[in-house]
Amino acid sequence: MAIANYLYLSAILFTIGAIGVVVRRNSIVVFMCIELMLNAANLAFVTFARINSNLEGQVVAFFTMVVAACEVVVGLAIIVTIYRSRRSASVDDASLLKR
Amino acid sequence: MLTAPSLSYSLLAPMLIVFGGAVAGVLVEAFLAKTHRAAVQLTISLGALLLALQQLWRIRDLSSTTAAVNSVAIDKAGIFLQATVVLLALVAVLLIADQDNFVAQASAVPGSSEEINTLQQKSQQTEIFPLFLFAVGGMMLFPVATDLITLFVALEVFSLPLYLLAGLSRRKRLLSQEAALKYFLLGAYASAFFLFGAAFLYGYAGTISLSGISAAFGTANEVFLLIGIVFLSVGLLFKISAVPFHSWTPDVYQGAPTPITAFMAACTKVAAFGAILRIFYVGFAQSQTLWQPIITVIAILTMIFGSIVAITQRDIKRMLAYSSIAHAGFLLSGVVALNKDGLAASLFYLFTYGFTTLAAFGIIGLVKDSAGEVTDLNRWIGLGKKSPLVAGVFAFLLLSFAGIPLTSGFIAKFAIFSAAYKSGNIALVVVGVLASAIAAFFYIRVIIMIFFTDPVNDSVSVIIPSVKSRISITIATLISIILGLAPSLLLNGADNFANFLR
């Protein structure tokens, strides 16, 4: 299979994630879409590592996983706090600042 | 056979000290009795920042070099930006030390008996200090990072603590938590774009170092380069709140605790613009025809949008948020200029703007009624008669934002526009001057409200600040005044330090 197909797959996954963030209303789902985008970037990195035949891209992929894990910790902490205050995780309900 | 990477600890010392202080702060949270924590945490934060400043002073004259296997460039501009971040953080930590702005226990549900109990016991969590130090460490790393991994990691290291800090306000907790949620979701969205762009830059150049990306120009597929630049820029422009990636700024500035807003508004701008300047001046200098038109348009939109929308704001924090958007536009003209003058002017601008912003938000934190801070502009009417000194200082800071002659803001704007003019971006200069004129209108409108409108019968008053806040606001204001009267003190320095390692 042509290696470029992995790049197309990565672009498709990234687009799905990017659209999901905009259209979905539950903050957990929005967050999952962001994770999907990060993983799409990871796939692109690994594919480019193969195309360029060096290892830097694979190293980046590992770093991205660690950073994404940190982001989950912070993100879920914020979302859970909001849920406990309002009994809702919908991003539409978070509209006090719009006046 | 694997060889261990060589690290130049003496060059990395400023960052290592700050990160070390943050880790020590986490240990203090875990092991020290509650009663002593606040004092110890403040000592650790101040100590780490002062020590980092001393280390930066020590390495200031070393010739530019890389540290940590070419991942970090310790060069003139990098040292200047790091020193700016540390100085701003030193002043900001004194504002943050006024703990009654922060929630007593972040995990307690707002209005619950748990929250009321902790407030009655006067117990106070102090995790803001380690979070603050981690953010400062990341902000020091971001402008000196020279490869895409380090840039991404630094971006997250300073962003993640800020997301949490934005949600820790003691009063109006729902607003504050909402600000944290918005900041987090949009920030993570932007960093995903940043990472995807980084992947395409790596695919384009076959290396993740900025100098490698610059060297690959003309030899590789330019479509990948363009995709890379566009997506990477989305992530960066989000951090500096350029239009159209600005929508989080007013909400987060308004919802976050005011000392955090002060810190974030000043230091994030320095770190993010430092990184943008390095990426565009070092990594993308060869490919300027690809990105200069895009960034020029964004700079123009940002200046105009920020200045015009600020006029309609009724909340002082939101107004300053839109003003910071306008300032991001002015600063972007220094990026587009792509010459040494542009870099020197941007360094000077970031320094003066940072201190003016810190002082302004510090003063906003002083205007209170019985329920907490008052940010509604209509209730600021007549404040000049109640407390002339504070109102006078605030008016001066607004004039500096507006760029009236004899203030530091004027020198900064003049320097950055003349750099843009030299590089031939006349349109940018014309729009910039017009936007400054529009912006001056709403700053002066606030001054008229404060001084020349009769006070309404209102319980709003300026509280007597604690010694720490007083020191902090005084230092920041003095720096702003001095740089307005004698700009050459720093302008020469910025000129000497305006040099990136390529």
Automatic annotation (TrEMBL), chain A:
Major localization listed first in the record, in broad terms: membrane
Keywords: Cell membrane, Membrane, NAD, Quinone, Translocase, Transmembrane, Transmembrane helix, Transport
Transmembrane stretches, start-end: 6-23, 28-48, 60-83
Translocase keyword on record: yes
Enzyme class, spelled out: translocase
GO biological process: ATP synthesis coupled electron transport
E.C. designation(s): 7.1.1.-
Catalytic activity: a quinone + NADH + 5 H(+)(in) = a quinol + NAD(+) + 4 H(+)(out)
Gene Ontology CC: one annotated term: NADH dehydrogenase complex
Subunit organization: NDH-1 is composed of 14 different subunits. Subunits NuoA, H, J, K, L, M, N constitute the membrane sector of the complex.
Described function: NDH-1 shuttles electrons from NADH, via FMN and iron-sulfur (Fe-S) centers, to quinones in the respiratory chain. The immediate electron acceptor for the enzyme in this species is believed to be a menaquinone. Couples the redox reaction to proton translocation (for every two electrons transferred, four hydrogen ions are translocated across the cytoplasmic membrane), and thus conserves the redox energy in a proton gradient.
Entry protein name: NADH-quinone oxidoreductase subunit K
